[in-house]
């Protein structure tokens, strides 16, 4: 699976979270993460996460949640068994990220 993260350079908070989500997706689904910046010709403003070139948008309009990413990946046809594992990984990524912010 192709995962593209549109990030600021250097990445800030949400960009870093999206990169970590991308790494979890690539690990769980196979594939690679590519990080691009608007200077690389990306026509989408950061932060953004694309799976197979399809933008996964945050439901709240602000920040991607594990469920947003799960829903976006599910729409691409990933097998259900893999989705449950992926959601757990994404939730752990978010928990670890938030813990890092509070310490």
Please explain how this structure is put together.
By secondary structure, the chain is α+β, with helices and mostly antiparallel strands. It contains three helices and four strands. It has a four-stranded mixed β-sheet with strand order 2-1-3-4, with helices on one face. 27% of the residues are buried.
H/E series: EHEEEHH
Q: Summarize the main sheet.
A: 4 strands, mixed
| Helix proportion range | 40-55%
Dominant shape: globular
Key terms:
103 residues; alpha+beta; four-stranded mixed sheet; 4 strands; globular
Brief digest:
It contains three helices and four strands; from the N terminus they run βαβββαα. With 103 residues, it is of the alpha+beta class.
Helix and strand layout, with pairings?
Elements: E1 2-6, H1 13-29, E2 32-36, E3 48-51, E4 54-56, H2 66-74, H3 80-102
Parallel strand pairs: 1-2
Antiparallel strand pairs: 1-3, 3-4
């Amino acid at each position: 699976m192709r995962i593209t993260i549109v990030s600021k350079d250097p990445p800030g908070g949400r960009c870093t979270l999206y990169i970590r989500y991308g790494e979890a997706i690539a690990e769980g689904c196979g594939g690679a993460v590519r990080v691009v910046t608007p200077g690389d010709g990306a026509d989408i403003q950061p932060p953004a996460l694309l799976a197979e070139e399809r933008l996964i948008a945050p439901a709240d309009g602000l920040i991607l949640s594990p469920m947003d990413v799960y829903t976006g990946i599910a729409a691409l046809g990933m097998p259900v068994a893999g989705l449950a594992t992926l959601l757990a990984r994404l939730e752990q990524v978010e928990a670890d990220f938030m813990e890092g912010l509070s310490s």
